[in-house]
Every structure is written in C-alpha cells, then in structure tokens.
Amino acid sequence: MEASCQCGNLTATIDDSAEPMTVMCHCIECQKRTGSPFGVMAYFPDASVSVGGEAREYARPTDEGNSFTTGFCPTCGSTLYGRASKYPGITGVTVGAIADPNFPAPARSVYEQSRHRWLALPEALPGFARGRDGEQTR
Length: 138
Ligand SMILES: [Zn+2]
Ligand SMILES: [Zn+2]
Fold this sequence. Notes:
With 138 residues, the protein is mainly beta. The protein has one domain (2-114): Metal Binding Protein, Guanine Nucleotide Exchange Factor, Chain A (Beta Complex), CATH 2.170.150.70. It has 2 helices and 10 strands; from the N terminus they run E-E-E-H-E-E-E-E-E-E-H-E. The protein has helices at residues 28-34, 95-98; strands spanning 2-4, 11-14, 21-25, 39-45, 49-52, 56-61, 67-72, 79-84, 90-94, 108-110. The strands form 2 sheets. Strands 6-7-8-9-4-3-10 form a 7-stranded mixed beta sheet. The longest helix is centred in the N-terminal third of the chain and has 7 residues, at 28-34. The protein is globular. The model has no long low-confidence stretch (mean pLDDT 96). Bound molecules: zinc ion (ZN) (2 copies). One zinc ion is lined by residues 5-7, 9-10, 73, 75-76, 78.
C-alpha cells in the first residue's frame, strides 16, 4: 500500500500485511494541520512504514504534555505522517494520502468536544470528548 502527497515527491510505503489502527480526530490542531474539519490517521508499527522523499517535520506539544510530530512535503504542503511521543514505535499515515475509498473505517473518534456540529457519525463508531482514556460520548 502506498501513500503520497499531492505532488508525489513524498511517499510512504506500508507493508500489506500490517493492520491499521485508524483514529479520527477533531482537535483544533488537526483541523489546522489538515485544513479540514477533522484529521484521520492510520497507525502502523514503525517497521511496516517506509517514508521516501524529502519531508519537513513540525512538532507541537499536546495538551497532555507530550509531543506530536507531523511530516509534510516541503513542496506541496501535504501532511503525510505523524508520530506521538506518547506511543513510541508507531507511525501514523494520513488516510487521505492513501487515497483508497475502501480503506477501513476508523476504530474511534477523538476530541469530539470540537467536532463540527453538522458532522454526523455512525453509532457504531466509539467517540470520546478528548482522548480515548477520558469521557466517552458515544
Ligand atoms: Zn508534495
Ligand atoms: Zn487531533
């Protein structure tokens, strides 16, 4: 499986045998990162993802005192991957960059406290006001 940025210079190759753990996030940082009302990343073991091409990285503090680093293409600006210091050993790949409408649905939806109110989500998709350790909203 291959993910790529808009211009194609930054890619991520994902082992086909790797099982994604996909998270939809409505936090303000993900909204600003993507330019969309939410972000969706599929997480894999680091060893299952190889990044090719030139990336720039941006690290931001999280509200829990950790950091979240995203890698983006310096030419077209697409975010392609992310790594959370809280969860070492796993790499997130932006699901939009995988560009497969058949990609499996997220396992959970987080930071629903800032979810855009028009966005309806399936009852079967667990939702959380903030992180998965906190208050469950659905
Ligand atoms: Zn690019
Ligand atoms: Zn987020």
